[in-house]
Write a structure and sequence with these properties.
heterodimer; A: 261 residues; alpha/beta; four-stranded antiparallel β-sheet; 9 helices; 12 strands; 38% helix; B: 219 residues; mainly alpha; MetI-like fold
Chain lengths: 261, 219
């Protein structure tokens, strides 16, 4: 078997005295689509934020393509990663946020072309034609010249997906990307992600409260509670025949709230 | 009263000195405000410390005293003897720049954390983040206060009359002592100061409208 694209070993993360991730281990294979589910406060969003280097770690080790993310080797010794190392490693990873985080002072097109031009040395013309392809893919070809404030939430989120894709990361992180949307706008975003999952071999990690979507989207579902993986497996197994009591009670609550799983 | 046009010319010459002081002082204040404001939030402790020291010192002492130090004490070191104009610009720029630095810092910190995180996610360097994302969003927040600062600076220019630089206020005093007429020169400079500050307000407001275009609905 190939080496995993992400390897997480004994990961620890505390905020002050609060332990949010406690001795976490898991591997992700290239091209895998993972759904991370669980009650709020279970640490799933923190894992994505750690992979995007938005949070520091308190202990343990993460490797991406076999290379440590938060450590670097210098003169034979392993040291905590500096900004240059993190900058290099971030090229592999892209992220889409719950609240889109578009740049409000840039047009839709500029939001997408900015980073490829600045960080990857892509020519402006090439970046723009690639951005237009991506906008076409997310169904927003006619919105290139708009400002983000002129778009609906669903449209903003699709632009944010295009912005992340423009950097061609090997790993895409989706952090509750539909939670901030009005219900009628959720579908258009999920459709785009479904198509991405089908048509690309990108590795994707999805934190979501949409169980139905997690079921359709993922190859593997990880159920988290209190900073640990309680149970994991293919979606059919987790959603229809969960083994652990905590998984069962979580899913019961979700179903009681009216969601399809 | 037949000589009034001559006296008016005198006051207008003073007005030109005031305009020059205001423009050059504001330019210096702007540069210093950005340097010190960015220094205040720098990752380097030494830079932070230096910027904080400068800001606290120049906000905490009187502009009169600062001007006297630059004009009278600095030459005693043998390093540099500034002209009255240079001393005036330096004192005004450094004094108002210290206030501006806090405005720059506050505006930068007011840009939501979301924006910093988005920059990390698209892998911008710190410099690129500041230049392309944070400052363009912080600038509209700074402008109203910068406008106030520029007007404060304009009004403070009259301190240079104390080092015998013939600005508008200085010339009005000259006219008063030569003509014995108090009302006319002081009404004239009152109107001129007000006209100048109105120009500043108007210019800032126009610029503000320009840089906030497209940001409506965001703030």
């Amino acid at each position: 078997m190939d080496q995993p694209i992400i390897r997480i070993q004994n990961l620890q993360k505390s905020f002050g005295t609060l332990k949010v991730i406690d001795g976490l281990n898991f591997d992700v294979m290239k091209g895998e689509k993972l759904a991370l589910i669980g009650p709020s406060g279970s640490g799933k969003t923190t894992i994505l934020r750690i992979l995007m280097t938005l949070e520091d770690i308190s202990g343990g080790r993460i490797e991406i393509n076999g290379e440590p993310l938060y450590h670097m080797t210098k003169g034979g010794a392993e040291l905590p990663a500096d900004e240059a190392h993190l900058h290099k490693m971030r090229r592999h990873v892209g992220m889409v946020f719950q609240h889109f985080n578009l740049f409000p002072h840039k047009t839709v097109l500029q939001n997408i072309t900015l980073a490829p031009v600045l960080t990857q040395g892509v020519g402006r013309a090439a970046a723009e034609s690639r951005a237009r392809e991506l906008l076409d893919m997310v169904g927003l070809a006619d919105k290139a010249a708009y400002m983000p404030s002129q778009l609906s939430g669903g449209q903003k989120q699709r632009v944010a997906i295009a912005r992340a894709l423009a950097l061609q990361p090997q790993i895409m992180l989706f952090d509750e990307v539909t939670s901030a949307l009005d219900p009628e706008l959720v579908e258009e975003v999920l459709e785009v992600m479904q198509r991405l999952a089908r048509e690309t071999d990108m590795t994707m990690l999805l934190v979501t409260h949409e169980m139905g979507f997690a079921h359709d989207f993922a190859d593997r579902v990880l159920f988290f509670d209190k900073g640990r993986i309680v149970e994991q497996g293919p979606p059919d197994q987790i959603f229809t025949a969960p083994q652990e009591d905590r998984t069962k009670s979580f899913l019961r609550k979700i179903i009681a709230a009216g969601q399809r799983v | 009263m037949g000589d009034w046009s001559g006296y008016l010319t005198l006051i207008l010459q003073g007005a030109w000195v005031t305009v020059k002081l205001t423009l050059m002082g504001s330019a210096l204040a702007l540069v210093v405000a950005f340097i010190a404001g960015l220094g205040r939030i720098s990752g380097h402790a030494a830079l932070r410390w230096l910027a904080t020291g400068y800001i606290e010192f120049f906000r905490g002492t009187s502009i009169f005293v600062q001007l006297f130090w630059i004009y009278f004490v600095l030459p005693m070191t043998g390093l540099w003897a500034p002209t009255p104009m240079q001393a005036g610009v330096l004192a005004l720029g450094l004094n108002v720049g210290a206030y501006g630095a806090e405005v720059v810092r506050g505006a930068i910190l007011a840009v939501p954390r979301d924006q910093y995180e988005a920059c990390t996610a698209v892998n911008l360097t710190r410099f690129q983040r500041m230049r392309h994302i944070i400052l363009p969003q912080a600038l509209p927040l700074m402008l109203p206060t910068f406008g106030n600062n520029a007007i404060e600076l304009l009004k403070a220019t009259s301190v240079v009359s104390l080092i015998s630089l013939a600005d508008m206020t200085f010339q009005a005093q000259v006219v008063r002592s030569q003509t014995g007429n108090t009302l006319l020169p002081f009404v004239t400079i009152l109107l001129l100061y007000f006209a100048m500050s109105s120009v500043i307000s108007f210019a800032i407001r126009r610029y503000e409208r320009r840089v906030t275009r497209g940001l409506d609905g965001v703030r």
